[in-house]
Amino acid sequence: MATLDNRRETGPHCEAENASACEHISRTLARISDKWSMLVVRVLGKGPCRFNALRREIGEISQKMLASTLRDLEEHGFVSRTVTPVTPPQVEYALTDLGREFLEPVRALAEWVMTNAPRMDRARAAYAARRAGP
Predict the structure, then answer these.
(1) How is the beta sheet containing 79-84 ordered, strand by strand?
(2) Which own/partner pairs from 109-117 qualify as long-range (CB within 8 Å, at least 24 positions apart)?
(3) More confident residue, 4 or 51
(4) Using one digit for the tens of pLDDT, what is the confidence trace for 95-105?
(5) Up-side HSE of residue 30: CA atoms within 13 Å toward CB?
(6) Among the listed residues 67, 31, 35, 71, the one whose alpha carbon sits nearest the alpha carbon of residue 52
(7) So what's the pLDDT on residue 134?
(8) Cβ distance 53 to 43 under 8 Å?
(9) pTM
(10) What is the pLDDT of residue 21?
(11) How far is 108 from 8, CA to CA, in rounded Å?
């Protein structure tokens, strides 16, 4: 089994001739791995939701940040926006097929975090103890 360093050097996505692939991967990870995107995808994973219900479910997110996050997720194909022509108009957000596929690694990452939280807590405590000194 190759080590991470070996994969980094010889992997097909990050060799010099695939620099554009590396840039694309970095941009995509930056877009989907921010705090709010993960939370929006998690909530929409339960089913379609209107803006204010989504905002209540997420918690401490500003209206501006939620609107911006939803626009970005829609632009990248993770979220669909459906406007119902009534007065006032109703807007509902839902995960697209791509968004539902993305939910799988999000859930796997969440599970990994929960499994490894005690190890990370111990590492933080050990680091703090070393920083505090004798």
Answers:
(1) 49-50, 90-95, 79-84
(2) 110/42
(3) 51
(4) 999 999 999 98
(5) 6
(6) 67
(7) 74
(8) no
(9) 0.73
(10) 84
(11) 23
